[in-house]
Specification:
Length: 575
Amino acid sequence: MIVLGINAYHADSSAAIFKNGVMIAATEEERFRRVKHWAGFPSLAIDFCLKEAGVSIHEVDHIAIGRDPKAKFLKKLLFFAARPIETFVHAKERWVNQRKVSSLEEEFALHFNINPSELKNKIHAVEHHRSHLASAFYASPFERAAIVSIDGSGDFSTTMLAIGDRQNMEVFDSIDFPHSLGIFYTAFTQLLGFPHYGDEYKVMGLAPYGEPKYVDKLRDVVLLDPDGLFKLNLSYFRSAGKGFVEYNEDHIPAIPIAYSSKATEVFGPARKKEEPLTQYHKDLAASIQRMAELTIFHILNFLHKKTGINQLCLAGGCAQNSVANGKILANTPFKEIYIPSAGHDAGIAMGAAQYLYHQTLQQPRVAPIYAACTGAHFTNEYIEQLLSDRNIPFKKLADDVLFDYVADKIVNAGVIGWFNGRAEFGPRALGGRSILADPSRADAKDLLNSKIKRRESFRPFAPSILKEWVPEYFGTTDLVPFMEKVYPILPEKRAIIPAVTHADGTGRLQSVDKTISPRYYALIEAFRKKSGIPILLNTSFNENEPIVNSPEEALDCFLRTSMDMLVMENIIVER
């Protein structure tokens, strides 16, 4: 059975394809269109998935979209009825968007030049948060688990709680728009002077430079209910009837100013982009992050009390908060956690398909997913032809020589563009499309931020560490395959790896498994033998753009930055 899942007309549009429950391919549309968070119909991602599965659109048995315009329909009507004037424009925009979702067969018919009637009975709408829940639970190793999805909003929900049991998920509680932890974090991200959709990770990166001095003030913004859930004090936010996300004709998501005048009265004026980051801004960032963590722990403690289950599956945009994720086991009774590589909205393509296959069609569970590399891949022959056509000198090395050669370059202060195997599904580079450097170099962070990434100096880089060495550097046996958690680096190790040690002594680790990422593991192992350090500094292979997808994009990024070496499969280009 072939099931295609999509996220369409929503930020981070994507596609994923499954054969008998096994994921064959998954990718985000932004990787092909080169526009961050692209939000239209994911035609190029769909084409890629069909090609990887070796099927045509006619051979697809079911198509699942992670949106359901009918979900909570009565609550939506009551919400708009209570705000008829201010919701008029917003309601019209939402109606147009939902009309597209409801007419997907027409979009498919246009793209594939087929009769819409051929697809009408194949398309299934799956509620946004149920798709998030499914992406975490059905990919997890747990037969039973407590499940939660937390994000900005989708299909009028902002948080959803459920129990998963084999093929079934049972939702037992949810929080409705506009009471949203995602909206809280976004509004205060804007207040700190980061206005773009998806900028929340900058606040998470800034937070370790401050102290959470303003948590008591923020407790008046996010109100933790005794029942285990929360509400927002809406006086701090833009009128909910006007909406919080807009999509322009180019399908690029944007968020209007989400905070109110009261927020600036209490927390000070919004920082302008060109203004310096003061200690107040850093302390406010630390306080925002801490309030988010307290809210997440509050929900999870309620979830554990309600379910009595020690295994947790977590998804939604807030599941990308790796700092909070790394503190869950210490602040809740949960014993094990699974978070998918694409916990954000791209993951609902994967989740919608899984929900349909397992929950709706009651098909059995399959093996858990620990590998994120499900995207584009290219042969050595393709890469050689590209470089030859552009008259760029290169050398080709066999694996038994390649890893030592590249490791030597890293040991000698080289910065490497590493393009290997399939592209990752999700926002994090995991050794498929990475920029790599020596984590022991004290100057590596500043060098990468200024000369290659061209981004804010406070933003950290991640340690990719051989799985067997995680306890020696982080004091935990937790496996973190998708770079989804931040843990403290042991104090005695911080001076050894300063380039990946954040201001508060933590690191957003990725534990690298030899069976899942054999070539990336081999490179880190080669570096360990030369340096004594089983870790590489890893950051995404891009420069203020979506992560590179093809050899052409990798080459262009290499040529316009100051990287020392580009490695694409077995092909090496050096300056």
